[in-house]
Design goal:
Layout lengths: L2 H28 L2 H7 L2 H23 L3 H18 L3 H25 L8 H21 L5 H18 L17 H19 L7 H7 L2 H4 L22 H5 L10 H22 L5 H12 L2 H4 L8 H21 L5 H14 L5 H18 L14 H24 L8 H6 L22 H16 L18 H15 L7 H26 L9 H16 L4 H24 L21 H11 L3 H8 L5 E5 L11 E4 H5 L11 H11 L3 E4 L9 H11 L3 E7 L2 E6 L7 H13 L10
Parallel strand pairs: 1-2, 1-3
Antiparallel strand pairs: 3-5, 4-5
């Protein structure tokens, strides 16, 4: 048997195990009742048919038109029709214009003011624009003019000034006809666009639990008329997270559709795929990097975050930008140290977006920085012109970080909350009333080494094949799909065939990737074994780095048959990803937003929320609260549904849940003290939510009796009461208690809440 024949058998074996893994995974998934039910629904079948038609349309237009500009225009037209049909055209357009404004603002700062080169890329424009917009919004809040109205006025005025005086920094943009695509690239790009449109089609109906909790409520929980630094009295720890993304998108948060905010993430997901391609180009040919981007577009763990209002997508994008510019610095050399400045700025910006970025961004940036120190790749200041402006970008990112962390510091006494509060209090920080210290969860605590090993193995099995089970509920919604097992097999076969020897800069780039990836892999394995609640979106950067690391190995294999085998098995992975992505989302939405061509171009979520509240008998309550959007309300009812009232609402679950402080409801006096701290004006109690067996019922009853709550109205059994922390027991409060017992519809003793 010849060498080439042996190699051919090796690749066939790889493809066999890939196919076997997919079949096993499909079998595991299809045995779950929830997936069987979804697949039998008309909405799912219609969604899959539309997705297939969309892919065919993109492919047809790509092969039909000879020029790249024509292909682009055809793709834009197809996408526009699809967006209009699914009632999301206007939000995508408006959010796209806002992101274009951020890029324009950043380009003006970089090129016109700081004299940095134009060709450093859109990523550097985004860093500069986003960081300095956050700084400006923070400064406006600090002086008391940070309301959404003022921020919006600033955007329009500064945008007009840029259009009048800043166009010279944009350049000619090229003619759009210079890029020719191969047939494989057209197919892969068609798949990529289809997967983005798949998410866009359900943008209106995929608003998830966390987004309803805090993501789409920035207009109420971040701004009460003066800006982000006002203490709004909310105790839920999610309200104190690093809010860089929410601050950046504040001007969009007052619009009637939640999709104006979530579609920002849709655009940024395109940025994630583009930056994945850009990173891949350091190690692969163009067609191979396009395959990398297409592979990432099929990862539910990445793309399902594109229709949430959470900060995961922008965090991943900024982390990719950080890695990209560190690679640019290594490739360009020490003289072009502005790239190191961009990478450093991206690191700081990532810390404004999400608390857990402190772990994952630091793991990557820290190892990268150690590599640069070890290789003595330190900047040569003054050796090349056009670099000094990089310091301004870094300064902007530091100021943005200071502005965002200052809010958390003012509210809680800590610059960072979530699981870091226990660590920070140990080193001298003091947590303010009424917040409670949260510890880092450890699901392996109390287990033997054997039990921990089995526990980790079970979780790895879930990540590789089918994330179902008690601790996989949040993984199935943002799973890596079949990607990880496919990449593991491809890495094994690539190592078996060996690689071509890297030399010079290519060697440095390869070593740098290994130095970053291997420790990052260890960090993710520790997280997987340790965390009590595993969320699939924690591993988004891991999916990207693993794909880059393994596809690089396949691209560099001595035998081209390895890459061809990877492409062959990769097609199965892409098909699997369509099937699974269409079934899952963070709120388990079914299908697309129903097709309609007669509408205003957007879905009015606020009006839908009002109608839902009216249908539940809350019409009068809604009207009272809508008259004063700055009113502060504590809502006792189903979370997060009760947060839909048009004012500053926090729920009873916010207060008593794991991220609140349950001690506040142990005594009436404790709760009254908290209401005084929060400057609460109203308490709402949902009909049928609480009863005599619940602490919330006895708490409300006692506060009415002692004059701390004064009923405003009973609306179909729902109660809205005004808060009077100085109230006392009197004849009027006694009558109010009798009225409460007669008018409030309480939960029956045998009902499950």
């Amino acid at each position: 048997m010849g060498r080439s024949q042996k190699h051919g058998y090796g690749v066939l074996l790889f493809m066999f195990f890939s196919a076997a893994g997919i079949l096993y995974s499909l079998n595991q998934i299809l045995n779950q009742e929830v997936f069987q039910w979804i697949m039998n629904q008309r909405e799912y079948k219609t969604m899959m048919a539309e997705t297939a038609g969309l892919f065919a349309a993109f492919c047809f237009s790509g092969f039909l038109f000879p020029k790249s500009k024509q292909k682009l225009m055809a793709a834009v037209l197809i996408t526009a029709v699809f967006l209009w049909a699914h009632v999301v055209f206007v939000p995508v357009l408006v959010s796209g214009l806002y992101l274009a404004y951020i890029l324009f603002f950043g380009r003006f700062l970089r090129v016109s003011l700081w004299k940095l080169p134009k060709d450093d890329g859109l990523a550097s424009d985004f860093l500069a624009g986003a960081s300095f917009l956050i700084v400006i919004y923070c400064l406006m809040s600090a002086i008391g003019i940070g309301s959404i109205g003022y921020l919006t006025a600033f955007v329009f005025i500064s945008g007009g000034i840029l259009l009048l005086f800043g166009r010279s920094c944009l350049g000619d943009g090229g003619n759009g006809n210079g890029l020719n695509f191969t047939g494989k690239e057209l197919l892969l790009l068609s798949f990529l666009l289809t997967m983005v449109c798949l998410q866009a089609g359900r943008l209106n109906i995929a608003i998830d639990y966390d987004s309803l909790w805090y993501g789409v409520r920035s207009r109420y929980i971040l701004d009460n008329g003066h800006g982000i630094y006002e203490n709004l009295g909310t105790i839920g720890i999610v309200y104190t997270y690093s809010k860089g993304f929410e601050v950046l998108t504040l001007p969009l948060s007052q619009l009637p559709s939640y999709s104006f905010v979530t579609s920002v993430n849709l655009w940024l997901s395109l940025g994630v795929l583009f930056m994945g391609y850009q990173i891949g180009r350091f190690y692969m040919k163009r067609e191979q990097a396009v395959f990398l981007a297409a592979l990432l577009s099929g990862v539910p763990g990445i793309m399902n975050m594109a229709v949430t209002a959470k900060s995961d997508i922008i965090t991943l994008l900024v982390q990719e930008i950080m890695l990209y510019y560190l690679l640019c610095y290594i490739k360009a050399g020490r003289k072009s140290w502005r790239y190191l400045g961009y990478g450093t700025a991206a690191f700081f910006i990532s810390l404004t977006l999400k608390p857990t970025a402190l772990i994952f961004s630091t793991a990557v940036f820290g190892m990268g920085f150690l590599y640069l120190l070890g290789k003595l790749l330190l900047p040569k200041f003054g050796a090349e012109g056009g670099n000094a402006g990089g310091l301004a970008v870094v300064a902007g990112s530091l100021l943005a970080l200071g502005g965002i962390w200052a809010r958390t510091q003012l509210l809680t006494g800590l610059p960072l909350t979530s699981v870091f509060s226990s660590l920070l209090t140990r080193i001298g920080f003091h947590l303010k009333y009424p917040f409670m210290v949260n510890t880092i969860p450890n699901s392996g605590a109390g287990m033997s080494m054997k039990e921990r090993t089995v526990h980790l193995a079970n979780r790895l099995h879930g990540f590789f094949f089918c994330p179902v089970g008690e601790d996989m509920d949040h993984v199935v919604l943002a799973w890596g799909g079949y990607l990880l097992y496919f990449l593991l097999l491809l890495w094994i076969v690539s190592c078996f065939y060996g690689k071509n020897v890297d030399r010079g800069k290519n060697c440095q780039l390869s070593v740098f990737l290994k130095v970053i990836y291997v420790p990052f892999l260890v960090v993710n394995l520790i997280s997987l074994g340790m965390l009590t609640q595993v969320d699939g979106n924690y591993f988004m950067l891991f999916y990207v780095l693993t794909a880059v690391y393994v596809l690089k190995a396949a691209a560099e294999a001595k035998e081209k048959v390895v890459w061809r085998g990877g492409i062959g098995a990769g097609v199965w992975v892409l098909m699997f990803s369509v099937f699974f992505t269409a079934m899952t989302s963070w709120n388990w939405s079914l299908g697309f937003t129903p097709v309609s061509f007669h509408h205003k171009g957007y879905y009015n979520h606020q009006e839908a929320a009002r109608q839902d509240m009216v249908s539940k008998g809350n019409g009068r309550v809604w009207d009272i609260l809508a008259a004063d959007p700055e009113a502060r309300l504590i809502a006792i009812g189903d979370h997060p549904d009760v947060l839909a009232f048009p004012c500053n609402v926090q729920s009873y679950d916010d207060i008593t849940g794991v991220w609140g402080n349950v001690a506040l409801v142990k005594k009436m006096d404790y709760f009254v003290e908290f209401m005084d701290y929060a400057k609460a004006e109203y308490v709402y109690v949902q009909a049928g939510y609480t009863g005599e067996e619940n602490r919330s019922y006895s708490l409300v009853r006692d506060m009415i009796e002692w004059g701390k709550l004064i009923p405003v109205c009973y609306d179909n059994g729902n109660l809205l009461a005004a808060v009077d922390v100085n109230g006392d027991y009197n004849e009027k409060s006694a009558r109010a208690l009798t009225e409460f017992e007669q008018c409030y519809i309480k939960k029956e003793a045998n009902d499950n809440q």
